[in-house]
Design goal:
By secondary structure, the chain is of the alpha+beta class. It is built from five helices and four strands. 54% of the residues lie in helices and 19% in strands.
Length: 189
């Protein structure tokens, strides 16, 4: 093997290694941003459940979820949100890529994979820009069933019907795939 060949192999190896490190850093940043939104929502929902039960938690989701996502988006440099195949809030409607990822998550769960581990990171062209997109599955926890389960108290159902007339986010069981945190960041205009 010639010296020139060794040099090119070294350059290619460095580029691959550097690209892998950049992707790892991007993945870690995306995970951290999704986790930050999840923790912020969970903290507010837990406090609401303790102070006023499901009725207070409904108000937190209705009033605080979007501003929290916007605040974290500004802090973290990602566009951060949540989506699902079974929406409660139509503002969280999934785009085609998100729907495809949610379908893949559902398939992976059917194949026996734990929903807690499901995530995807992908760079793609999106609306004329190069973006990095990330999704992390949201798994239904037992506390979520107070507003997302099958047997809801009448007052909870009535309030959900009032706030979300097209609500499809009921009837879950603990461990189900509720949806996903969805993030994106422009990497090239």
């Amino acid at each position: 093997m010639s010296r020139k060949h060794h040099v090119w192999m070294g350059v290619i190896g460095a580029l691959i290694w550097g690209g892998a490190q950049a992707q790892d850093a991007t993945l870690l940043a995306a995970r951290a941003s999704a986790q930050k939104l999840g923790q912020a929502l969970q903290a507010e929902l837990s406090a609401a459940m303790q102070s006023g039960g499901p009725m207070a938690a409904i108000e937190v989701c209705n009033v605080r979820a979007l501003p929290l996502a916007q605040q974290i988006s500004q802090q973290q440099g990602w566009q951060v949100g949540r989506t699902s195949m079974r929406l409660r809030n139509p503002q969280n409607r999934a785009d085609d890529w998100e729907l495809a990822q949610l379908a893949k998550f559902a398939e992976r769960i059917q194949a026996g994979e734990s929903a807690d581990t499901l995530e995807v990171l992908q760079q793609q062209a999106h609306h004329g820009q190069t973006v990095v997109r990330y999704m992390k599955a949201i798994v239904v926890q037992p506390a979520c069933l107070a507003c997302h389960g099958s047997a809801l108290p009448d007052e909870v159902s009535a309030r959900l019907d009032q706030l979300y007339p097209q609500d499809r986010a009921r009837g879950y069981q603990a461990g189900d795939l509720r949806g996903a945190f969805t993030l994106q960041r422009v990497v090239a205009p």
